[in-house]
From TrEMBL, chain A:
Belongs to the cytochrome c oxidase IV family. SUPFAM superfamilies: Mitochondrial cytochrome c oxidase subunit IV. Component of the cytochrome c oxidase, the last enzyme in the mitochondrial electron transport chain which drives oxidative phosphorylation. Keywords: Membrane, Mitochondrion, Mitochondrion inner membrane, Transmembrane, Transmembrane helix. This is Cytochrome c oxidase subunit 4. GO terms for biological process: mitochondrial electron transport, cytochrome c to oxygen.
From TrEMBL, chain B:
Keywords: Acetylation, Heme, Iron, Membrane, Metal-binding, Mitochondrion, Mitochondrion inner membrane, Phosphoprotein, Transit peptide, Ubl conjugation. Component of the cytochrome c oxidase (complex IV, CIV), a multisubunit enzyme composed of a catalytic core of 3 subunits and several supernumerary subunits. The complex exists as a monomer or a dimer and forms supercomplexes (SCs) in the inner mitochondrial membrane with ubiquinol-cytochrome c oxidoreductase (cytochrome b-c1 complex, complex III, CIII). Pathway: Energy metabolism; oxidative phosphorylation. This is Cytochrome c oxidase subunit 5A, mitochondrial. PANTHER family: CYTOCHROME C OXIDASE POLYPEPTIDE, CYTOCHROME C OXIDASE SUBUNIT 5A, MITOCHONDRIAL. The lineage of its organism: Eukaryota, Metazoa, Chordata, Craniata, Vertebrata.
Length: 178, 141
């Protein structure tokens, strides 16, 4: 018998080759034999599922009915016009867990995801800042402005790239860039 | 005219100049490149026959409905009438309501399909005493 801990299983469960639709599974917890795992799902028996593309699952949501519920099921065998709206909703909820609207309802999960992403980006920023203060070596002397000025002057004096490059762009008579 | 002439040749002459693929049809029809194409009417009739089986059992109802919803179409009201009557024979009101929800969901962005279907099904719904999901408040969260 196949057993799985009850967690989100997604398209792994779908015997049909549909696109991966996540759906929550409500199955009976295995009875006597599952002492090693807390709530093992017996996947060899028909299971309930809420799917928009398969409206009628293999078993009803609630199959263990109380007295009142059994009475209601008996009443269902008669004319349905004699049922009140509450009884009709009760019958629906016995058979199904979520209605289509509830299945389709958007969740606020994206806010959590976005918040988590931004939080960790911020944390990374703090880590980088700390590294800049405590880990980076001292700034090389050659990157100071005065050194760079002296370096540029030396390159111009040496006539580096006089035809089309650096020195070609310097006006030696006026002492400025062309 | 050409199409009628082709259909009259019963033994299925597999000429390449067969019917055009009816991929633009809003209901029914798969787009095969060969073989006889089932018309919308044949498709509907097949499904109505399936659900009209007097001793249909719960499994067959579920299988038929799940398969029908799997197709790229919204079932015709006459098929749905047969489904609802099958639910009545099986004393299953919840599935009848679920099926109406599924039809609304199948229509997707085409918001005018579901009211049309409900309008067409009104006689059956009142005859069998089936409330729509809206009447029961099941369309709210």
């Amino acid at each position: 018998m196949l057993r799985l801990t009850s967690s989100r299983l997604g398209s792994l469960l779908a015997g049909r080759p549909t696109a991966a639709l996540t759906f929550s599974i409500k199955g009976r917890a295995a009875s006597q034999q599952s002492h090693e795992v807390s709530e093992a799902l017996d996947m060899s028996r028909p299971m309930y599922y809420d799917r928009v593309d398969m409206p009628l699952p293999d078993k009803p949501y609630k199959d263990v009915l109380s007295e009142a519920e059994q009475k209601l099921k008996q009443k269902e065998k008669g004319p349905w016009s004699q049922l009140t709206n509450e009884e009709k909703v009760a019958l629906y909820r016995l058979k199904f867990c979520q209605s289509y609207s509830e299945m389709r309802a958007p969740s606020a999960e994206w806010k959590t995801v976005l918040g988590g992403v931004l939080f960790f980006l911020g944390f990374t920023g703090l880590v980088v800042w700390w590294q800049r203060i405590y880990v980076y070596p001292p700034r090389p002397r050659t990157l100071e402005d005065d050194w760079k000025a002296m370096q540029l002057q030396r390159m111009l004096d040496m006539r580096i790239n006089p035809v089309e490059g650096l020195s070609a762009k310097w006006d030696y008579d006026k002492g400025q860039w062309k | 005219m050409f199409r009628a002439a082709v259909r009259l040749s019963v033994s299925g002459a597999r000429s390449l100049t067969r019917t055009q693929p009816r991929c633009q049809a809003p209901l029914a029809s798969r787009c095969y490149s060969h073989g006889k194409q089932e018309t919308d009417e044949e498709f509907d009739a097949r499904w109505i026959t399936y659900f009209n089986k007097p001793d249909i059992d719960a499994w067959e109802l579920r299988k038929g409905m799940n398969t029908l919803i799997g197709y790229d179409l919204v079932p015709e009201p006459k098929i749905l009438e047969a489904v609802l009557r099958a639910c009545r024979r099986l004393n299953d009101l919840a599935s009848a309501i679920r099926i109406l929800e599924a039809v609304k969901d199948k229509a997707g962005p085409h918001k005018d399909i579901y009211p049309y279907v409900i309008q067409e099904l009104k006689p059956v719904l009142s005859e069998l005493g089936i409330s729509t999901p809206e009447e029961l408040g099941l369309d709210k969260i």
